[in-house]
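Project standup — Tuesday

K.O.: blocked on the structure for the chain from last sprint. Re-posting the sequence here as requested.
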Amino acid sequence: MEQAQKQDGSLPRTAAATTPENPWPLRVLSDKLKIHIENSPESWVEGQLLEANVRNGHAYLVMRDVDADQSFSVTVWASVMRSLDMPPEVGSRVVARVKPSFYAKTGRLSLNAFDLRPVGLGDLLARLERLRRALFDEGLFDPARKLPLPLLPNRIGLITGRDSDAEKDVVRNASLRWPAVAFDIRNTAVQGVNAVSEVTAALRELDANPDVDVIIIARGGGALEDLLPFSSEDLVRAVAACSTPVISAIGHEADRPILDDVADVRASTPTDAAKRVVPDLAEELANLAMARNRLDRAVRGNVEREAQRLASLRARPVLANPESMVQLRREDVVRLGQRSTLAMRAALTRGHDSIGHLRAQVRALSPQQTLDRGYAVVQLDDGGILRSAADAPAGAGIQVRLARGRLAATVTNSHSPEEG
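H.V.: unblocked you, prediction finished:
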């Protein structure tokens, strides 16, 4: 029947055209997959060798991604093996030029390697340096974006290996410094292919916990290859995105993965991280006692100085005998009163004398004085003063005012000065 289908061309040409009534034979799918896969170009890949079996000159490897739990079977034929400088070893990190291969009979996908090279220390360092420069250019190392550590964290998130010395160092030293410290510990792989994914997941979980005020990522020292997960771009970017302060405590002083540059605080060792994250209770109590002593001395000194000032003020005569000041002012008032009385009397006397003198002058100039000397004032009947004989013709009535009394008279005759 299948031969008939092939002859009349009734098989679907594409996978989308297949139906339950008109399916592909399995071998058709297998053949098409093989053609599609093996048309893929060669590519260079990097990974770590988990298995390395050499049989009959051929090498059958299992290569695993260095940061993720993904692996591939890799076949290195004898012709390629003879060109290698050294045989592949389990645990080594390599780069390989591979091409996908699909075994249609079992549906097994693998890679054929045409070149295999170990990744040397120099290559790793150069690659890390390129990543470090790229992250620096992005500003992930900028001190301005780093978060300050809390003075006294409520809870500390700790990411480290299970039963590791790093965990013991952090917990022990932090507890010695501040016995009430609380930890939220996440045990993860700290080397190998699972380290990046597990540490990143634990980091995000702790960062999402509002009770965690600071996160420590701690690991003891090791070879460069062991510390490579802490230079992973995925992990580094996860740390940069955290809203919780992160302390990097990886290895020893000489070890410096990229995580140290991105973290908010770099601790040289796990022990150093414990010292940075919480204050020393004994030291704080000593500082508190010292501050209280300084405050006590300052208060006592101020009180003593003010007491001395009060004693000095009380010893002054004005406070020792305050009525003396009143008596002194009383004497001043009496003396000033006497002076004012004398001054007033003198002024009155001078005024009285001046009035008498003026009275004498007025009297000396008054018409009465003239009258007293024998002179008289002659007035006409209308009250006007008679100054000229011509103003009083014969028969005119006149009034004569003497020093004492008046006379009424009639002019009988008058002579002018010209008549002489």
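K.O.: great, moving the ticket to review. Residues 1-8 have pLDDT under 50 and may be disordered. DSSP finds 14 helices and 13 strands in the chain.
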